[in-house]
Amino acid sequence: MSPNLMKVDPKLRNFKRLAGLHANAQKSQILFSKAALQVQHQIQSIFGFPQGTFPVRYLGVPLITSKLSRADCAPLILKIEARIAGWNQLKLTYAGRTQLIKSVLSSIHQYWCSVFILPKGVIKTIEAKSAISYGEEVQRVEDTRLHGNKYVNQLCMVALASEYIQTMNNALMGKHLWQILTKKHDSIWVSWISRYKLRHGTLWAANDKEGSWTWKKLLKLRHQLIKGIQFRVGDGTEFKLWLDPWHPAGALIQRYPHGPLVTGIPLDSPLSTVITEGNWNWPSEYHIDVNEIITKLPAIHSGTNDTIIWNSSSGNYSAKDAYDVFSE
User: Fold this and answer.
1) Where does the source fall among the domains of life (predicted)?
2) Hey, is 47 helix, strand or coil?
């Protein structure tokens, strides 16, 4: 038995003593990954929790270890269907249904969109359910062909629902990337990603061909996310010279793949390598054309740390502001 594991039970008891809260054995489960049967039995005897299997629901969503499937999203679809079924009994007006779809249904799927990258098939299903909820009212609008009328405009909104959900999904998931970039220290997930997933300590160098399905999908959002980011150069200790896209031309390693070899400046060197006393000091004796780099160098903000800023009035990331970036 692992010594670390033996420490867990006393810590749970201490937490109960201090907070007055304890784990409910009827609602708690233990999940194992390739553990020997003997070890599983020992652990269960210590905690008294039954063994569970994936997927497990937590805070309304499934905890999974693989790609999110349509079956995993069944609770989301059923919840939307239940809401729509209740509305159909209320004989709501077209405007009333539109408002409910925009507020209630959006809030249901947006929570999932902030946790998962939804499969396209699920997004299409949500779109179809939203359209069906208009019922005969949609048919009336289609029959009368009221071009330019507000009803037709609302119909267009329904037709674009799939694109809206996809874009909002990307904007909400983009916040996870933003937290990594801003090094959100109170997030266990960010700390784990920073330690085990980031090559050379930067998100921009992470390989989008490695890792879980969700992680690879997240990394593919970087080319859109960067459109909303400003890189503010300070002392050069936080940004990577070759790997981070602090330069207007993008990450220098992409334009000068042999740069580290030719210059002798290691690939993971900080930007401070070419900053001296608050001024740019890019070596000129190396056999690479640095004119493009030098002529487009951003300003240095002496006495400050390197920071990234979101292109908004607050400078902080929000899904609302990011929606426009991800819809481009």
Assistant:
1) Eukaryota
2) helix
Strands 275-276 and 229-232: unpaired
Which pLDDT score, from 0 to 100, does residue 243 have? Answer: 96
Contact call for residues 72 and 79 (beta carbons, < 8 A): no
Q: From the centroid of its chain, how far is CA 141?
A: 38
Q: Rounded CA gap, 158 and 11, in Å?
A: 52
Parse the chain into domains and list their residue ranges.
3-53, 74-159, 173-225+311-326, 234-305
Please give the Cα distance from 170 to 116 (Å, whole number): 10
Query: Using CB atoms within 10 A of its CB, is residue 165 exposed (0-12), middle (13-18) or buried (19+)?
Result: buried
- Collapse the DSSP code of 88 into the 3-class scheme (helix H, G, I; strand E, B; otherwise coil) and give the result: helix
How does pLDDT run across 21-39, given as a tens digit for each residue? Answer: 877 777 788 888 778 888 8
Q: What are 5's two structure tokens?
A: 């594991």
Provide the residue count of the chain: 328
**What's the one-letter identity of residue 35?**
A
Q: How far apart are CA 243 and CA 57, in angstroms?
A: 39
Q: Which residue has the higher pLDDT, 63 or 65?
A: 63
d(CA 129, CA 124): 9
Task: Give dist(CA 46, CA 9) in Å, integer.
Answer: 7
Phi/psi at 314 (5° precision)? -85, -25
**What are the pLDDT digits (tens) for 194-245?**
988 997 889 999 999 988 889 999 999 999 999 999 999 999 999 999 999 9
Q: Which of 222, 187, 191 is nearest to 207 (CA)?
A: 222
Residue 140 has pLDDT above 70, yes or no: no
